[in-house]
Write a structure and sequence with these properties.
alpha+beta; 2 domains; elongated; disordered N terminus; binds iron/sulfur cluster; EC 2.4.2.14; amidophosphoribosyltransferase activity
């Protein structure tokens, strides 16, 4: 489908798309380095967290410059643009839209002039109390009332935070943040800058990951440890849930704006985070391999070959093969770039469906009883097409194994699965889903076993999309999420 910007065809594959993460954020304070380049490479490592738009804001110490556009990091920035972004500190953002449409003015970082100078801000997550925050914004600054559209330079919840931060007159931004942050509800990892200082904050539940790293001559904050690795920063620690950090010439200052009540997103381990990232001291790759081993014990089957759905199913398929003794093989080839084309596909191309993304290796799978390991089933369309494609390529049997439990509930904390009505799991038993997919058997890992594989206690995890227990109050239905869009 053509997006509202008229350029990017994200839904080229008409069959389905996987869960879409909200965003990736990055921040750097390194006066003697090329911060725009560091941010560019940091965003490159976080591209999987958001592929609709990308942006960088840098500050020279006196002036902030923002550059953002629709598209992948490599499409938005070129050598000339990066060279023009001179600064001592900066932030960057890769975006998927969960609140607010996928259009240019919703790309981040957002920018706003305050009475103390500029403020550029980037956000990963999703706020659940936007009505309340909007009312507060009007109380703080009655001028914000008329007309609404003019005061909110975009419809996303991030702009609301930026507007709030700039509504406290001449108060220093560090003090302002300590007033605003405790009022935010939902999932948020923020990186923001004024002319001189890099700031970072993480919600009290720590739903989304945010880490702190050290360069030889500066500091880095990023959504994932993999982004620290790519810019040569060493991992220092996670930004604590409920922590607010400021970094400037004077060094790093940390304050707590709320007590930590950890509820890390379980789905980060299954699908969202890069395998080479570490969350709460546990490697995502090691967790996924362990999930595969457990899956083999929970759902054994006689078969000739274990194949992954690339790429996120790969570590669990390795684990499944290892624990079951069934050989591992690559039966599907993935085209990593096709979903990000600028050309709207013709009807003929769209009918190819899943083949745009995955192509079977006939000589590997023909005549075999296959175990296919995938990370999750959202609507089921992808897996249905996959099973059909594998049978057409000559597979004798297709046994589907899923490295997460059935996705039964939507996410309000920054992941776009689908509405509950679009999910396949609610109301259907595993056998019915198996029949609907056309598979010979279907097995999901149990929620307890998945939790065990993360090495974190269930009490410290959000598992709401699997069990419906939301650790942060959610808006009634989708109304709150859509509220800002309705104006
Ligand atoms: S609902 Fe699911 S995807 Fe959303 S934060 Fe909780 S575990 Fe993660």
């Amino acid at each position: 489908m053509l997006r509202p910007d008229g350029r990017l065809s994200l839904d080229l594959d008409p069959i389905d798309h996987g869960p879409k993460d909200a965003c990736g954020v990055f921040g750097v304070f390194a006066p003697s380095e090329d911060v725009a380049q560091l941010t560019y490479y940091g965003l490159f490592a976080l591209q999987h967290r958001g592929q609709e738009s990308a942006g960088i804001a840098v500050s020279t110490g006196e002036r902030i410059t923002v550059f953002k556009d629709m598209g992948l990091v490599s499409q938005v920035f070129d050598e000339a643009t990066l060279t023009s972004l001179r600064g001592r500190l900066g932030i960057g953002h890769t975006r998927y839209s969960t609140t607010g449409a996928s259009v240019w003015h919703n790309a981040q970082p957002t920018f706003r002039a305050t009475r103390n100078g500029g403020l550029a801000l980037a956000h990963n997550g999703n706020l659940t109390n936007t009505h309340e925050l909007e009312s507060w914004l009007r109380e703080l600054d009655p001028d914000q009332r008329v007309p609404e559209k003019k005061t909110m330079d975009s419809t996303n919840d991030t702009s609301l935070v930026t507007a709030l931060m700039s509504s406290f007159g001449t108060e220093p931004i560090e003090q302002v943040a300590m007033k605003v942050l405790p009022r935010l509800r939902g999932a948020f990892c923020l990186t923001f800058i004024n002319e001189t200082t890099l700031f970072a904050a993480r919600d009290p539940q720590g739903v989304r990951p945010l880490v702190l790293g050290r360069l030889a001559t500066g500091w880095v904050v990023a959504s994932e440890t993999a982004a620290l690795d790519i810019v040569g920063a060493s991992f220092i620690r996670e930004v604590e849930p409920g922590e607010f950090i400021a970094i400037d010439e004077a060094g790093l200052r940390s304050q707590r704006f709320a007590e930590a009540r950890p509820k890390g997103c379980l789905f980060e381990y299954v699908y969202l985070a890069r395998p080479d990232t570490t969350i709460a001291g546990r490697s995502v790759h090691a967790t996924r391999v362990e999930i595969g081993r457990i899956l083999a014990r929970e759902h054994p089957v006689e078969a000739d070959l274990v194949i992954p759905t690339p790429d996120s199913g790969t570590p669990s398929a390795v684990g499944y093969a290892e624990a079951s003794g069934i050989p591992f093989g690559l039966g599907l080839v993935k085209n990593a770039y096709v979903g990000r084309t600028f050309i709207q596909p013709s009807q003929t191309i769209r009918q190819l469906g899943i083949r745009l993304k995955l192509n079977p290796l006939k000589e590997v799978i023909a005549g075999k009883r296959l175990v296919v390991v995938d990370d999750s089933i959202v609507r089921g369309n992808t897996q249905r097409a996959l099973v059909r494609m594998l049978r057409e390529a000559g597979a004798k049997q297709v046994h589907v194994r899923i490295s997460s439990p059935p996705v039964e509930w939507p996410c309000f904390y920054g992941i776009d699965f689908a509405t509950r009505a679009e999910l396949i799991a609610p109301g259907l038993g595993v056998d019915e889903i198996c029949r609907s997919l056309g598979a010979d058997s279907l097995g999901y890992i149990s929620l307890d076993a998945l939790t065990e594989a993360t090495h974190r206690p269930a009490a410290e995890l959000c598992r709401a999309c699997f069990d419906g227990r939301y650790p942060i109050a959610v808006p009634k239905g989708q109304a709150e999420l859509l509220h800002l869009e309705e104006k």
